[in-house]
Amino acid sequence: MAGAVGVAMSSVGAVAVGPVGHVSAGVVRAAGAAVVASATAGVPGGARAVRGVIGVRHALHARREMRQRHSLLRMTQELLDDIVRQRIRGLRLARGWTLDALASRCFLSASTLSRIETGHRRIALDQLVPIAQALGTTLDQLVEPEGDEDVVIRPEPETMTGSTVWLLSRERDRRGVTIAKMRITPEREWREGQVHPGYEWFTVLSGVVRLTLGERTILVREGQAAEFSTMTPHVIQAHEGPVEILTIFDHDGERAHLPGHRHEK
User: Fold this and answer.
1) Phi, psi (5° rounding) for residue 11?
2) Of 106, 109, 163, 256, which residue has the fewest beta carbons closer than 10 angstroms?
């Protein structure tokens, strides 16, 4: 009976099959379901045996995939745990706190915090909440996975009469500000002093800025910075040659000084 199976498979050019219940995996893959049906024709229990072997193979494959998935999840969780521990320690040290200082603020013992930071103790949710509050952050920020987005900003120059702008922050920056490098030349058109809510800050990278604030004219030189209320009429111009500045605008400042740039409709 086992020989019948072997002969039937050989007649269609497939690799020979041994006794029923020991079907070669290469036969099943190469010949397909039609060949298996032909090979087991007239053999009592033959088709059932082949289907059983295939079912076992599928089960083993699924089990391997499950083990790999669980292993990946464990690696991901361990990596996230390490990141959280680094954040707790980093935020504590940034504030100049000892373990005792943080412990007194989150109602945990210094030894518990030490074991959490060094990975000798698992982190429980009911511990993370007071730790985050004591460190002045949120639970979401503390456990946020590291992103894999492109962190490099590649600014493209946008030129207008007498000025060129390079935007150095992303659109809809979550801090609510726009950071830009500007090159201003004496050809920049003179405008009336602008007024809008908020404050403005810039530092001079090269050249000299002539800053007009109301009735005052102030020269801001290379390496210096200026900060002022934008409720005062103000104009920024180049003084006796090109000037480059690094500036930070809030939303109102962006609308006033960068017309046509990334404005919401």
Assistant:
1) -65, -20
2) 109
Nearest to 185 by CA among 213, 207, 217: 207
Q: What tokens were used for 244? A: 């480059």
Instruction: Return phi, psi of residue 15, to 5°.
Output: -65, 145
- The larger pLDDT score, comparing residue 221 to residue 15, is at 221
* Residues paired with 210 in a beta bridge: 219, 237
pLDDT digits (tens, 9 = 90+) for 119-129: 888 888 888 89
Judged against a pLDDT cut of 50, whether residue 90 lies above it is answered with yes
Q: Where in the chain are the domains?
A: 2-63, 80-143, 158-257
Q: 158-257 — its CATH code?
A: 2.60.120.10
Reported confidence tier of residue 110, pLDDT bands at 50, 70, 90: very high
Please provide the CATH number assigned to the domain covering 80-143. 1.10.260.40
Please check whether the two domains, 80-143 and 158-257, share a CATH topology: no
Residue 88 has pLDDT above 90, yes or no: yes
Nearest to 51 by CA among 61, 40, 62: 40
Q: Model confidence over 199-241: pLDDT tens digits?
A: 889 999 999 999 999 999 999 999 999 999 888 899 899 999 9
